[in-house]
Each structure stands twice: as structure tokens, then as C-alpha cells.
Amino acid sequence: MLAFRYIAMHYLKYIFIILGALVLFVVGFDYMDHVTELSKSANLLLIYLVYNAFYAVDLLLPLSLVLGMISTKIFLIRSNALVSFFSLGYSRVDVLKPFVIVSMTIIVLFISLHTWSSFARAQEFSRNIRKHAQYLNPTRDLFFAYKGKYVYFSKLLPLQERAQGVRVFSVKNNSLKEVVTAKSAEYRNGFWHIKKGDLVTKPDDLSLASPGIKVSTANDLQILEGFRPKMLDQVYEGKVNFTISDAIDAILLLDRQGIDTRTIKGALYKIFVYPFFAPFLIVIIFFFVPMSVRFLNVSLFSFGAILATLLIWGILMMLIELSNNKTIPSEVGIIGPVVILMLIAIRQWRKYRLATS
């Protein structure tokens, strides 16, 4: 228990030092790169920096877990604490357990942060502040199909749960049947409500004997059941920064409509699967490190371990981007590499656990 507490405390210290340094570097570099584009408002600038910090944490926390383990292991070797633990009867697996338990706990907390919209959509919000001086930019000219109808919003305001310039086209047998036009619609109680609109109905028969096109007033119309404004904005704008609840709701809703949900599934895989590369990589790297400075060149090992970690992390991020763009299936780009790391880690764990049993 003493060894677990000692290692865990030093591990947490190095995680926060490395994460803090990386976040400050990313936020500072981004600020210097875009300072001329940012609003002069101190409030907006502060919000921009906070959202950028959230995005940097989302991007770099799993990487910091691995780099923190490398730094902690080097500290234990240089201080001869690792040799002392082995002399007291601790095995390699016993020394590894604090790293695995702490990293897994942090990852669970990290995943739970994605239920919070300000964290999950931090990159989108910071980009909106830089380009439009507001963190939630209205979506314009949104046109999509839903439940056999074609819907057009001239402007969607997700925060106010309101849309302007609404058009709803009903099609039957590949022919336009009716059109509903309205100045605005509001989302309430699971539906988009059109308080008052104009209903244009086209008859099936357009001959001279037909009554012609009928124009009437429609009141209290309900459309788009269950399509929340934020979900609508994310899905049809092709964005990939979903909260967990929005992603699950979108998949359940769109699957019933036969609409492609690969991007949304990829977003969920990134939240739930991708972060676990960190503990698996920790296990793999851990067993390659000797117990004393007499058996390795510490500087050379540090350079090699950090380089390998950055290379693997970079490949994973590249595959995630390819999955987001539907170049490759998200199962191949996100789940596949993490499963491979898991199998290698399990093999390493079992090998050294059997050797010490």
C-alpha cells in the first residue's frame, strides 16, 4: 500500500505538470497565431482562451498519461526507489498497478466530461469566437430530408431553440404535394412548433378542369419530432464534436430514418475507445524499462520512449481524422488500433505476471 501511494502521488504530479505545460504551449501558440483575428473584448478573449484550454485538454490528456508514466519511471530509476521496491519483494506487476489504476480512473473521469457541452464542443466554440465574435454561431441555409419531408431553415439558432425562414416540402410519388412556409419555428416539448404559416397545396391533377393550387393558413403545426436544435445543427452541418447524450440520441433517431450515422458513431468511438490507448501503451512501455541506471542509458531511453509515444499518438489522430471524413471506417481507424495495443498489452502483462508467480 505504501508503494502504491508513493508511485501514484508522483505519477499524478508528473501528469499535471506535463498536461499543464502542453496546454499552455497549445493555447499560447494558438493565441499568437490568431491574435489579429480576435475581438478586442476582454470577456470574449478570456472565453476564447478557456475554450481553447478545454480543447487542448481533450486532445492531450491521454498523451499526458503516457508521458507522465515515462517521467515517473525515470524518476524511480534515478532515485533508486525502483530497486528498493524490488528488494522489498514487490514485483514488476505490483509497481505497474498504480500507473494502470490511476490512468484508468482519470480516463473514466475524462469520458464523463464529454457529457458537458462546453467541453465536448470547445473547438467549435473557440473557432466561432475567432471568426464571428460569438461562441455559438447561427447555422444558415440548412436543407435536409426527414420522415419523407424536405425541410429548409434560412437560419437556425440552437441556443434560442428557434429557426427563421422555414419551408417544409411534402413529396408523394416523386411529385411535390404541398409546401408550408413560415417566418419562424420554435422547439418545445420534443417538436418544432410553427405557430402560423402558409400552406400551399398542389392538386394531383393539373389539368384545366382541376381546382388549381390552393393557398390557406396553417396554425399550430408540429414537425421534426425529437430533433433537438443542437443535434440538428451538429448532424446536418457535418460536425463531429458531439456530447455523449446528443450522439446517442442522434444515432437512435437517424437509424430509424435510414440516414448515414458513420460520423456520429466515429465521434462516440473517439470518446469511449480512443482514450484507452494510454493505459495499454503504458503497460507495453513499462516492461521495456530496466530497473537500474546501470542497465540502460536513461537519456536515450527517454528520447526513444517519448518519440515512440508521439508517433503512435500521431498515427491514432491521423486515423481519427480519416474516419471523421469517412475515408476509412471508424471501426478500422479508431477501434482497430486500440484493440491491437490492448492485445499486445495483455500479452506483456501475462508474460511478466507468470514469470513472477
From TrEMBL:
<feature type="transmembrane region" description="Helical">
    <location>
        <begin position="12"/>
        <end position="32"/>
    </location>
</feature>
<feature type="transmembrane region" description="Helical">
    <location>
        <begin position="44"/>
        <end position="68"/>
    </location>
</feature>
<protein>
    <submittedName>
        <fullName>LptF/LptG family permease</fullName>
    </submittedName>
</protein>
<keyword id="KW-1003">Cell membrane</keyword>
<feature type="transmembrane region" description="Helical">
    <location>
        <begin position="295"/>
        <end position="320"/>
    </location>
</feature>
<feature type="transmembrane region" description="Helical">
    <location>
        <begin position="332"/>
        <end position="349"/>
    </location>
</feature>
<keyword id="KW-0812">Transmembrane</keyword>
<keyword id="KW-1133">Transmembrane helix</keyword>
<feature type="transmembrane region" description="Helical">
    <location>
        <begin position="271"/>
        <end position="289"/>
    </location>
</feature>
<keyword id="KW-0472">Membrane</keyword>
<dbReference type="GO" id="GO:0043190">
    <property type="term" value="C:ATP-binding cassette (ABC) transporter complex"/>
</dbReference>
<dbReference type="InterPro" id="IPR005495">
    <property type="entry name" value="LptG/LptF_permease"/>
</dbReference>
<feature type="transmembrane region" description="Helical">
    <location>
        <begin position="75"/>
        <end position="93"/>
    </location>
</feature>
<feature type="transmembrane region" description="Helical">
    <location>
        <begin position="99"/>
        <end position="120"/>
    </location>
</feature>
<dbReference type="Pfam" id="PF03739">
    <property type="entry name" value="LptF_LptG"/>
</dbReference>
<dbReference type="GO" id="GO:0015920">
    <property type="term" value="P:lipopolysaccharide transport"/>
</dbReference>
